Amino acid sequence: MEHIPAFNSQNLEAACRVLADTSRGLTGPQIEHLLQEIRVADVSPQMTKWKRLYNALGCAQNKHQVGNHLIMFINRAMNPVSYARDRAAFEWRRDELNVVLAFSGFYVRDDGKVTRSTTESTLAGARARAGRMKAALENRSVHSEVLKYCTAELIEENYFHAVFEATKGLAQRIRDISGLCSDGADLVNEAFAIKSPYIALNALTTESEKSEQKGFSNLLIGLFGAIRNPLAHAPKLTWPMPEQDALDVLTLVSFVHRKLDGGTKVK
């Protein structure tokens, strides 16, 4: 391996905090085993996990004046075979490491190996490169209309406003297709009325077709009532939007956009 310049203390600490995260990081025994594999002394095994790892790698770095030991540790810690039954753990560690390593000009590939990349100088740039949520949505083939309205919020991992903007964008698309100017339940009821709709999902001739139209209308009203409206009136502090909830809601919004793709403008 080439000689890699030593990492500054802040970057090394940030990487160790990810690798030894309390809930999603490596266990103490795993850290001990990996340090043995790269022949780095475990100088403070009694300390908390991230400090233990930081002290071990820091001492090795100071002794040899290279940053190779961190890279060797990550290469072994991120070996995909170790995550065969827990891909979520691999994705989380990889994404978080990529945010940290971006400031030093490195990147963890899909195969778990660290490679060189351009150096980022801002958190926004590092987060954009990692792009965890955006990548997860792209893996689900999310509709382009979803990302159109909330990409900036996803980059900042602002899931509260990402969902808010995506649901507002959905209402706007319904207005654009129908030509109506209302909002919320009024917009949905008028746009997808059974007798005289502005947008029809099907021919509306059979009971099943009418049921689909009515059910879709109810789904939209529920989406606006349960998600968009509370977000519009409640402060972010009192209405949390966890990452998994945001992913599920945005996937639902994507489904609605695909149904709209197949709809027909009647009026």
Can you give keywords for this protein?
267 residues; mainly alpha; two-stranded antiparallel ribbon; two-stranded antiparallel sheet; 12 helices; 4 strands
Summary of the model, kept short:
The protein is mainly α. The protein is built from twelve helices and four strands.
- Helix count equals 12
Tally the beta strands: 4
Overall shape: it is elongated
What is the strand content?
under 5%
Main-sheet strand order equals 1-2
Helix percentage? 55-70%
Taking pLDDT < 50 over at least 5 consecutive residues as the criterion, the unreliable ranges are none
**Ends apart, CA distance between termini:** 67 Å
What integer is the average pLDDT? 91
Question: Your description of this structure?
Answer:
There is one protein chain. The chain is 61% helix and 4% strand. It has twelve helices and four strands. Helix 9 (159-178) packs parallel to helix 10 (184-191), helix 9 (159-178) packs across helix 11 (207-233) and helix 10 (184-191) runs antiparallel to helix 11.
Spell out the blueprint of helices and strands.
Elements: H1 9-19, H2 28-37, H3 49-64, H4 68-77, H5 87-101, E1 106-108, E2 114-116, H6 123-130, H7 132-139, H8 144-155, H9 159-178, H10 184-191, E3 199-200, H11 207-233, H12 243-261, E4 264-265
Antiparallel strand pairs: 1-2, 3-4
